């Protein structure tokens, strides 16, 4: 029983057949759409490597059924930069060496983007650390990650944040 | 040794804190890891793994799996492709026995027992579940008391199990103070964020693989042997590893199963392990029980150090965690003994895991040293300085370099150690929580393995450097390119730098904290060879301004060869090659341990200072501040090195406070085989880290003076934290990790 | 996971009709259900997607002072609803101490109430578990039991309920509204989850097809807003299930405790309301002696179910600390580390 769903992925609205309702958003992105930036580290919501934004909110894409997200807007790491122009969070991760092996990095970055949009942490490093604790990094790049989130957030005025959120929406 | 800050520049590139050259790929999702590949026609393979730790598989419901829509094939011991070698054949110390469906035996929990191959991942996954194996269960040996001790023929990768120098019994008898303490460390699983994966495509007897590997040539050799094909017919791409930590040093059984599955179905196959499956067939750090006996004179000078390790290996293969090694190196005990004993348990075979031996051994030794310092009424840092080893205690050799005193001093200063009260339980924070400070000494050997590299200078002005080196996060893409650029006298952006595939010169293994030293030395040699050839062309050509300078009389800089004795005389590489009518010169280089190792003890050192906060009533612990000062020879890229130290220190936090595989004592199954309950630190667990790079020049260790930084951060850190917990609470917890229940 | 039929419900009646079929399960965010399905623990043959049911995604305040939390309100939205967090600070703190930001963004209020135990012998299909497979036995007994129940357990099951959210909710007398084939009904949350007894497979009072639609906090629940805290002891600083947790609420009057509420998490197969402890505190001064007496009362019936005797003493100490924090007053802003022992006292100071 194949079901068609409509997803807006990285600004492009598309109709996507879901031949198997068991398919998670993560597996759809990785195996179906070949958007392999989001990673499968645990497949059970325990590591955060699969984090993407759905309707502007960061979630674990491994624990979301694709078929249930009909109509949703999905932003993955592949849709974050604008051409060669990196998103401030991406820039900050490079500058602060917020990764080593890079496997958890797309999830960390999407989580950071979500965190900044949530606007709950302010510039308190302890709140940032807590809010980033859903993204495991086995290499131990946490210090750089926290610095990167704070710097990127500082660089993005609230206006910029809203503007980019809107742009992502309008691109749909 | 100098206590000044490390030089930021050693050359144009070396010593500079460049950002990662693979950074943009990694922050955009463009870095493609093995499981990110989808060759045309690819199928999905999913393993079924054993629920029991010992016994036999008596039935697999193959029919149920085969009838699941989308399932293409079920690979079992009955129909698996024939192998040219039995997976239990051993060829050397680096060959580990693999579980490749050779029979119906089960020798550990989560052992692969079948593989289901299907058109979709969902179908393969459910197909594997439908196999629903039945078993004949045998009682497994679980835990260090469950089997008979034996003396292993070798520990680690071939060291003797026992070592003694001096008379330990006499040293203990003569001591004014003695302590004896037993420490336990649990089984730990590497759990790199990237599960082991393979995407395998056969073309006749040629094999194409996307597969994370810390050692491409060794993987090639193992696969070639198993399948009876030539190593050169195997092409492995491994440009990025999502972490290795030792678990990807050898090709893992599940990766071979993916290759077998592809052979069985005649189509490309992707096999990715699930997280729970990672707790079995891909190695782990074995549990240890370490008993330390120390004696000291009135002035705190050690009279004897005895370090006994009991650890475990599997029932079918040997890897013995060499925990005693750190005691050979660190403290100037005139009498010193280490022994290793082992038991055989029904687990997967242990494997090297970040600082194998050093991590577990250091955790015990540093705690014992702290207990000895307490017994002597001395500050633990002062006690360590009192017992500072000027030569390596076990061998008597001089150190090739050792800036540990500077590490102690710089770390203590940055941490504020001087304000530490001697007695425990004296410090509280503003909220009434207990605060404690502890120190641990870090050490890791400076190893060298074998590698080869190629450097090509072209008449067009381009250069390319190639080596089958591996970046698993430590930064090879960047640091090795920095070495290549400097040795060729070029800007880093002028070098086309290639690593991570098996068709490049053998880059050796990314492990033992030796990869930058080894691969870097090979690159240095290749570059020097290319430059020498170029110099030969120029200095023997009367038309060159360098004519007559002799090879040794020129240096490469800025794309030109320059006369040493007259820098106004130089010539561009392109001109030299152009005039000689050569398209290019190709240099070759190699690296390996040299004779200096006979004469010197070679180790990196460091000191880690830890602050913990402990809730006095609830027992909850947080490592609120860590300062590490490390001396590891020449630093190629301080930004990346600092990240390596941070990562190691966080592993120390994990070792001290979090990680342990919890085995059911009756079944031998890991009951926390997931990342929700197998705890590794989260961001909030490490609020403050500082790593100090202490300058150290080492003329002996290798031509680049590099000692390696990947593992040393784990050592020292766990001990420092455990010692800080004692300082906060007055409790010596000797069973790691220190969970809150142990403090109630 | 096994193949299933996917049904998207358009209203509650539609959902209940579809959800009553044998093998059916309701799907909201799926953060717990999909996890269990991937592990083979849950094998529903039909998923009824309730994420689009109208009217269930709102927090509604009634004139009588009660608040109605729609089943589909996301955990993070509820915790970050300023009016809600101000009135029910322990609920917000509990929500934010749970899981990760990503999971809280997805997980729903009703899903949180419906989440199932983390007992490894339940989630591991190779183990005997009376809850997963009635009558098969309990491999947790005699196994790894450090985190298992110390209250209300039976020989058949020693698992615990993992929710943080439910702990303050049960302390505040929350009520569960349920829609079913026979209409709607209300059940106190304290009576919603069942203790294991002889039938640990029956986890809640829900009948086949019944669906949680609303969680109601009664008007009285708002009286504790000035003195309510949630405190959660765990094995790492964040992103960990509770070893033991406590929600403590006080209503103070003239320096005395007019009314106290206490519930414990991580100790039993349900969020554990400790009414005996509340009774001890009524009328007393909010001091350590009183809180200790309350703690003793709360844990009076506790007994270890394995290697977990430490949890009993830990729970006692936690009760004291949670009440001390509650007595000190709800902080103006939730601490950076919600529910944590390491939340600075400065942030927890009386406003």
Automatic annotation (TrEMBL), chain A:
<keyword id="KW-0479">Metal-binding</keyword>
<dbReference type="InterPro" id="IPR002888">
    <property type="entry name" value="2Fe-2S-bd"/>
</dbReference>
<dbReference type="InterPro" id="IPR036884">
    <property type="entry name" value="2Fe-2S-bd_dom_sf"/>
</dbReference>
<keyword id="KW-0411">Iron-sulfur</keyword>
<keyword id="KW-0560">Oxidoreductase</keyword>
<feature type="domain" description="2Fe-2S ferredoxin-type">
    <location>
        <begin position="3"/>
        <end position="80"/>
    </location>
</feature>
<dbReference type="GO" id="GO:0016903">
    <property type="term" value="F:oxidoreductase activity, acting on the aldehyde or oxo group of donors"/>
</dbReference>
<dbReference type="InterPro" id="IPR012675">
    <property type="entry name" value="Beta-grasp_dom_sf"/>
</dbReference>
<dbReference type="Pfam" id="PF01799">
    <property type="entry name" value="Fer2_2"/>
</dbReference>
<protein>
    <submittedName>
        <fullName>(2Fe-2S)-binding protein</fullName>
    </submittedName>
</protein>
<dbReference type="GO" id="GO:0046872">
    <property type="term" value="F:metal ion binding"/>
</dbReference>
<dbReference type="GO" id="GO:0051537">
    <property type="term" value="F:2 iron, 2 sulfur cluster binding"/>
</dbReference>
<keyword id="KW-0001">2Fe-2S</keyword>
<dbReference type="InterPro" id="IPR052914">
    <property type="entry name" value="Aldehyde_Oxdr_Iron-Sulfur"/>
</dbReference>
<dbReference type="InterPro" id="IPR006058">
    <property type="entry name" value="2Fe2S_fd_BS"/>
</dbReference>
From TrEMBL, chain B:
<dbReference type="Pfam" id="PF02738">
    <property type="entry name" value="MoCoBD_1"/>
</dbReference>
<dbReference type="InterPro" id="IPR000674">
    <property type="entry name" value="Ald_Oxase/Xan_DH_a/b"/>
</dbReference>
<dbReference type="Pfam" id="PF01315">
    <property type="entry name" value="Ald_Xan_dh_C"/>
</dbReference>
<dbReference type="InterPro" id="IPR008274">
    <property type="entry name" value="AldOxase/xan_DH_MoCoBD1"/>
</dbReference>
<feature type="region of interest" description="Disordered">
    <location>
        <begin position="1"/>
        <end position="21"/>
    </location>
</feature>
<feature type="domain" description="Aldehyde oxidase/xanthine dehydrogenase a/b hammerhead">
    <location>
        <begin position="28"/>
        <end position="139"/>
    </location>
</feature>
<dbReference type="InterPro" id="IPR036856">
    <property type="entry name" value="Ald_Oxase/Xan_DH_a/b_sf"/>
</dbReference>
<dbReference type="InterPro" id="IPR037165">
    <property type="entry name" value="AldOxase/xan_DH_Mopterin-bd_sf"/>
</dbReference>
<dbReference type="Pfam" id="PF20256">
    <property type="entry name" value="MoCoBD_2"/>
</dbReference>
<feature type="compositionally biased region" description="Polar residues">
    <location>
        <begin position="1"/>
        <end position="16"/>
    </location>
</feature>
<dbReference type="GO" id="GO:0005506">
    <property type="term" value="F:iron ion binding"/>
</dbReference>
<dbReference type="InterPro" id="IPR016208">
    <property type="entry name" value="Ald_Oxase/xanthine_DH-like"/>
</dbReference>
<dbReference type="GO" id="GO:0016491">
    <property type="term" value="F:oxidoreductase activity"/>
</dbReference>
<protein>
    <submittedName>
        <fullName>Xanthine dehydrogenase family protein molybdopterin-binding subunit</fullName>
    </submittedName>
</protein>
<dbReference type="InterPro" id="IPR046867">
    <property type="entry name" value="AldOxase/xan_DH_MoCoBD2"/>
</dbReference>
From TrEMBL, chain C:
<dbReference type="Pfam" id="PF00941">
    <property type="entry name" value="FAD_binding_5"/>
</dbReference>
<keyword id="KW-0274">FAD</keyword>
<dbReference type="GO" id="GO:0071949">
    <property type="term" value="F:FAD binding"/>
</dbReference>
<dbReference type="InterPro" id="IPR036318">
    <property type="entry name" value="FAD-bd_PCMH-like_sf"/>
</dbReference>
<dbReference type="InterPro" id="IPR051312">
    <property type="entry name" value="Diverse_Substr_Oxidored"/>
</dbReference>
<feature type="domain" description="FAD-binding PCMH-type">
    <location>
        <begin position="1"/>
        <end position="222"/>
    </location>
</feature>
<dbReference type="GO" id="GO:0016491">
    <property type="term" value="F:oxidoreductase activity"/>
</dbReference>
<dbReference type="InterPro" id="IPR005107">
    <property type="entry name" value="CO_DH_flav_C"/>
</dbReference>
<protein>
    <submittedName>
        <fullName>Xanthine dehydrogenase family protein subunit M</fullName>
    </submittedName>
</protein>
<dbReference type="InterPro" id="IPR036683">
    <property type="entry name" value="CO_DH_flav_C_dom_sf"/>
</dbReference>
<dbReference type="Pfam" id="PF03450">
    <property type="entry name" value="CO_deh_flav_C"/>
</dbReference>
<keyword id="KW-0285">Flavoprotein</keyword>
<dbReference type="InterPro" id="IPR016166">
    <property type="entry name" value="FAD-bd_PCMH"/>
</dbReference>
<dbReference type="InterPro" id="IPR002346">
    <property type="entry name" value="Mopterin_DH_FAD-bd"/>
</dbReference>
<dbReference type="InterPro" id="IPR016167">
    <property type="entry name" value="FAD-bd_PCMH_sub1"/>
</dbReference>
